[in-house]
Structures are given as structure tokens and as C-alpha cells.
Amino acid sequence: MIVEDDIGLQKQLRWSLDQYDVVFANDRESAISQVRRHEPAVVTLDLGLPPDADGASEGLATLRQILEMMPDTKVIIVSGNSEHANAVKAVGSGAYDLHPKPIDIDMLRLVIERAFHLHALQQENRKLMTMQADSPLAGIITRDAGMLKMCRTVEKVASSSATMMILGESGTGKELIARALHTSSRRQSQKFVAINCAAIPETLLESELFGYERGAFTGAAKQTIGKIEMAHKGTFFLDEVGDLPLSLQAKLLRFLQQRTIERVGGREEIPVDVRIVCATHRNLKELAAKGQFREDLYYRLSEIVLTLPPLRERVGDAALLAHHFKNKFVRLEGRGTLSFSQEALDLIESYSWPGNIREMENCIKRAVIMAEGRQITPMDLGLMECPAEPESINLRQVRDVAECKAVLRALARMDGNIAKAADLLGVSRPTLYDIMNRHGIQAKTEKPAQELEMGLRA
Ligand SMILES: Nc1ncnc2c1ncn2[C@@H]1O[C@H](COP(=O)(O)OP(=O)(O)OP(=O)(O)O)[C@@H](O)[C@H]1O
After folding, report:
1. Are 370 and 335 within 8 A, CB to CB?
2. How many folded domains does the chain comprise?
3. Relative to the CA of 170, which ligand 1 atom is closest?
4. What pTM did the predictor assign?
């Protein structure tokens, strides 16, 4: 934003700064209203504004008000020699830098560029911090109404000892939820032990799960405890439980009924106190109907069932997670500021993510490594598939659903910034608030990090 009452100078700056989206103001009132509407990252401010064009009182008051509203905004004071003392005072009050009049446009461009860079860094940093605070459960990034509800369920059931089944496609975060359940429970100071039934050959699985005594089989040189026993007093996570062979299903069922285990080659019944959480991407009911999974075990394991929606059904999460992973890998790879191009974000939002969050994580890691400039382009993402079109239904419903999705997407993309989301949607801020009200989308401004707990009431 350029705050300047000299129309000639305004024009000159408009031409010289045509690489930026510039908005103008010529006095305090219009400056403040532009700040409300556009929330500019960088402002150049002439101190001599009407009605005190020869003094600095209006300029200094404008500076104060801008910084009260938007403390991160970088305000560059543009002033003549006679105003030097006031310009220094302005820097003392929080202005970012000062630039002398007459303007040296190359110098000013440089100062503006640095100001944008610093602003971007601060925003990234803030986002990183708020993302962590934002998580409803440790490590889980989401603003989707269904997922937020699920996180609340996890918190509620964490203190119980009920056995839990987590269903969902591959890469939807089943293990992450299991870990979150453990860290939210009173078992958190004890071990979380995980085993993937699909990754271990059948012949080894029994001894992995239950342990073995010395001499139980050739090569059993010493007594070894199994994973279930290892998790004593903690949480035991049985991943891909649908792949558990039938013989071991019987043994697991016995453990669930008696809460004791018998090591392979042993005779002793050893009591073990564990919370069992299991997960699968397979349809256990179907497997049970085909006789490949014991129905009694299925019911024992599913005292509480959580179903994780695939990423393509989580509204707004694709852009949110993309930003999260971009920030993570930029840090890990030691890259400078990097943002998504508009086209890259469009692609991220329309892609169907068959591999869910794991695929997204890998894709963004690749993009951070591949990106050549300061922007991640669709090419860097390396995604092939075309977006699927939603089914059409009743016209009013289609319009409603599309409107609601567009608003959630715009808010997610602009990280909850209402003014920017309104701009993106091409509506005024009050109109956006109306639409959000109509769809029950909340914006909790008192807690910016969670402004965005956007939920659909219906
Ligand atoms: N909501 C989320 N926020 C941040 N990271 C996530 C989220 N969900 C999943 N991840 C990350 O995505 C990756 C895959 O998650 P996870 O291993 O928990 O999925 P899964 O459903 O258990 O997969 P599989 O069925 O293949 O075992 C992990 O690196 C995890 O940290």
C-alpha cells in the first residue's frame, strides 16, 4: 500500500512498482480502510498527510494505527530532509525502515523487496508455530469437520481401556491416530509398541507377537519376549490386522479373553496389561463373511471403531497439509522461502490423492527438492491424474455445496485470512461473513490459530 497525498508521485510509484499489486491511500482515513480491506504486507508512508501536510502528526498517527491492527506489516517511511527527525521517531515507534525524498526508485524497490522477504519469513514462522498449536491432537493437521470430530472422540476414549479399531485407506494416518491415542491416555509414560502383520512372514509372526522360550525351535538360543509383552502397561498397535493368519487369530482371541500370553515353547501363563489398538485398510466384515477373519475376534477388536476419511473427502485439508509439509521440508532441506504457485495449489486441491497423506508428504518433499525458483509449480509436483468431476444433483444443492466448498477452500488457502479469502472469492467481507453464517462455517478470530476450525453444522 502506498500512502501518499501527492497524486503525481502516486502515479510515478504505480508505474515503477508494477510487479506488485499496489493499493493507494491519500490520508489517514483511507489508509486505515485500505489496511482493513487488503491487509498489505508492506506500506510506504508519507509522513506529511492532510490535514497536517506540513507536519508529521497525521503520518505518525497513521503508522500507530496500522501497527496496532497489523503488527507484522512492514511500514517504510518516505520523507523529505526536513522531516528527518520525525522519520527517525517513526522508526523508533515500529516503522520498518526509512527512505529519503526525492525517491530513488531502485533503492526503494530494494527496500520493498527486503521488507516483503522479511514479512514472508515471519508469516511462515508464525504459521509453523500455530500449526502445532492448531492441532487438535499432537501431530495431526486438519480443519475438516469430520476429522475434528474424530479427534474429539479420540480424546474422549483415550482414558478408557476399550480396544479400538481404526479403519481407513492406506496413508490416511491410522498409525498417527493410534499414537495420538496413546499419548492422550494415562499409559503415555509407558511404551507404544507397533507391529505390522502384513510385513512379517507368517512363520515369524507368532514368535514376534508372543515371544519364545530358549530351545523352542532351532536357533532359539535365548528366551525372547514378544511385542505384546514388551508393551506391558502401555499400548500395543496391531497394524494390518486383516492380514493376521487364522491360526494366530485364535491365539490373539485367547489373549483378549484371558489377558495372559504363553510364549512359544513355554507353559507359563504370563499376565499382560496392554491397551490394544488395531488398524486395517481391508474390509473385515467382508473377510469374515468369506471365512478369512474370525467374526468373534472382529467383535472383540472393535469395541470402538474409528473410520478415517480419505484425504479427498476432507474439505480444505489438501492445501493445509501441503503448506504444512512444504514448511517441514523447506526447513529440513535448508531451502529459502518457497511458496506454491496458484496453479500448483489448484492442482493440489483438485487431485484425488489415492495414496492419501503419505502420497502428499512424498509429493511435497519431491517438489521442495525439485523447485528451481521461489515457487513450486505443477511440474514440480509430478502429479498426473486429472481431477474428477463431482456428481450433479438438484441445482440448488449443487450451488450450495459448491459455494460452501469454495469458501472453505478460499479460507484454507488464505490460512483463514477473511479479507484475502473474500478477495479471492470476489466478494466483499460482509458478504463472505453472510455466506459463512449461512453454512455454519466458523471463524474464531479470538484465537487466530484456530480461527479456522471451520465446521459444517449440517
Ligand atoms: N492429519 C495428518 N497430519 C499430519 N501428518 C499426517 C496426518 N495424517 C497422516 N500423516 C502422515 O502421513 C504419513 C502416513 O500416515 P500413517 O502411517 O499414520 O498412515 P496409515 O493409515 O497408518 O498408513 P498404512 O495403512 O499404509 O499403514 C505419516 O508420515 C504421517 O505422519
Report:
1. no
2. 4
3. 25
4. 0.62
